[in-house]
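Hi,

I'm pasting everything inline rather than attaching a file, because the server keeps stripping attachments. The sequence lines come first, and each chain or strand is labelled.
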Amino acid sequence: MSGRVLPRTFYADPSLRVARRLLGKLLVHETADGPTSGRIVEVEAYRGPADRAAHSFGGRRSARNEAMYGPPGHAYVYFIYGIHFCMNVVCREPDVPEAVLLRALEPVAGIAVMRARRALADAPEWRLCRGPGALCRAMGITRAENNADLCRGALRILDAPDVPARDVARTPRIGVDYAGADAARPWRFAVRSSWAVSGRRLR
DNA sequence: TGTCCGATTGGT
DNA sequence: CCAATCGGACAG
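And the predicted assembly:
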């Protein structure tokens, strides 16, 4: 599992740009269970105080979303529906709360470990990291990884070839119908050719 | 302190 | 379509 760790400057940009560029990169997590990794194939940009769908909408700041206000290149992990965790990558400089939600990966390494963690009988590989909650479960990402530095440590993102524009789809974000006009903005990015992408089939 | 509901998932 | 399951956000 080699490859350069993405430098902090990669994340010090608007979430829309970071989201697009994150496609194709490799998320790695080394735990006591063993290493797991996957290629990022679906993400969503959350754009800060002006974005009704963002946890930082209106400048909301609390213990839960504090990581969003921290330096770029860190994880923002939150607990949702009493069951699942979701992982975001924090963007931009401190006090500018933008982030990118990781929604799906193509499993690359540690597939047996992922399958064991998912506790889904005979889960096919393409299902292991499909969806933000599923991805965290398979990768062993929980509350403990909130605020983790992605540039050094057990949870990190490695550089890998960019996905060409013709293979990238843009759609509205999923599960944010409450966000009014912002619900329709095309801030979800997904790799068309990937079988691991969540939701409805892309074109 | 009490109520409401979510950036989800998997099974019916 | 719906239950699972809990803690954040906000009203009072």
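The first strand of chain A starts at residue 26 and ends at 31.

If the labels don't parse on your end, tell me and I'll reformat.
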